[in-house]
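Hello everyone,

My group is preparing for a crystallization screen and wants a predicted model to guide construct design. The compound we'll soak is calcium ion. Before spending weeks at the bench, it would help to have a computed complex in hand. I've included the protein sequence and the ligand's SMILES below. Output in structure-token form would be ideal because that's what our pipeline reads.
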Amino acid sequence: KRLSRQEDVPRILYYVQRSKEHHWCCAEVTFYCSDQLLCNQWVQALQRRLDLQGVRPKNLLVFINPFGGKQLGKHIYDKKVAPLFQLASITTEVIVTEHANHARDHLAEVDLRIYDGIVCVGGDGMFSEVIHGLICQTQKIAGIDQNDPNSKLVACSLRIGIIPAGSTDCICYATVGVNDPVTSALHIIVGDSQPMDVSSVHHNNTFLKYSVSLLGYGFYGDVLKDSENNRWMGPSRYDFSGFKTFLSHQCYEGTVLYLPATETLGNPRDESRCTAGCYVCQYSGKLLDLSNNKQELKHVEEDWKVVKGKFLAINAANMSCACSKSPMGLSPAAHLADGTIDLILVRKCSRFNFLRHLIRHTNKDDQFDLAFVEVYRVKQFIFTPKYSEEDNIDIRDIGKNLFGQFCSDHPACGCSQVNSNWNCDGEIIEHAAVEVRYVLFCCLELSG
Ligand SMILES: CCCCCCCCCCCCC/C=C/[C@@H](O)[C@H](CO)NC(=O)CCCCCCCCCCCCCCC
Ligand SMILES: Nc1ncnc2c1ncn2[C@@H]1O[C@H](COP(=O)(O)OP(=O)(O)OP(=O)(O)O)[C@@H](O)[C@H]1O
Ligand SMILES: [Ca+2]
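Reply:
Good plan to model first. Here are the tokens for the complex, ready for your pipeline.
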């Protein structure tokens, strides 16, 4: 860069610069050249180099949820993201959603061949809509029955980018390391990608939902259910409902059956942390493929384990679930794409002990190093509540007050006869009895 002379042609080159703690920003350098021809040759040569890379998206379908988080999705996209896409010569078709499931239903039908990727501007719930639309369309074209829990799903060919504009944004946080719209836009522009585990949730051989971050019963299910009534509060609805749910101290009785992930590397209490190009994910993916093939050939009997009891929370983390409330996440050593789920069981304990467990999510202490907490790395699990779901519907009709419907035999035991519900990536699943398994790699347009 040198000082401009009047007759020099200025050309600005924009590039990605790393800044503090996983943040990326767009920086620029201005070149001046007095020879117009030479200048154009430079620009064309650089453009050819970029085109050769092939991973950069050229045409994107963008969904904006105007009501996610602090309702700033549209503003964030217009002010921070669209100008960067324009600089990178990315063309976009932008859809501002008009109702819940708008993005999901559009994606389930539309011809996706003209797009290089999908971008969702919103939170985890919005991302969930997008993967449901994409996965459903892919299975429909391939003639796969999603209701059959044993179906081998076909991977989607499109990548999904997330511009964080939600309340928790844990999928963005756990993949990029931060929830910053500019950083995410730059990851999308340079064509980064990160595979990610997807689990399916079934009830009585009927497909319910896919999950990519947290599937939580008990505490997180109740927090979500209560928080839906307070959406007007924005992201702080979770703190309010979290506090209420903490005070209600409900526990739920049931049986968990799980299939341990024995063929993969690592365990939920090791020191490994999943980052871009993760060795554990690459290695475990290969081992898992081998073991699945072996089982198909030999019909190997699998070694299911059983845990019965009263639980304050049953959490299935497909990834660390790191977010601003918990920078290391619900399961700090969980992997984004190793084909496994970390199953965390928090048994009935005192309020004080449960608070100790929760507080450890906010600092470096080990939240699993407590007598009432168990954690297993699994491929599959089944939860059956003690009370049948049909009976529960009747009890629900009577109504559940703030402190819940306590066990009628032991009024002081705090064990609920009403079932909780599952929190699936921030969306409610009404059924308590579920069968969950790893089913698919999904590709994100970003990397950690
Ligand atoms: C004393 C402070 C303890 C703080 C403990 C914080 C633990 C936070 C762990 C967050 C895990 C997030 C998992 C991600 C789930 C997402 O798929 C989903 C959709 O976006 N988000 C939520 O369900 C949103 C879930 C939000 C849950 C918030 C829970 C807040 C608990 C507050 C308890 C207060 C007790 C105070 C007693 C004096
Ligand atoms: N136009 C719309 N009107 C109402 N709801 C919508 C609209 N578009 C999307 N939704 C729904 O809004 C819900 C929440 O969206 P989103 O995940 O973006 O924000 P959030 O819940 O605040 O954040 P997080 O999921 O990170 O906690 C999703 O379930 C989505 O289906
Ligand atoms: Ca995983």
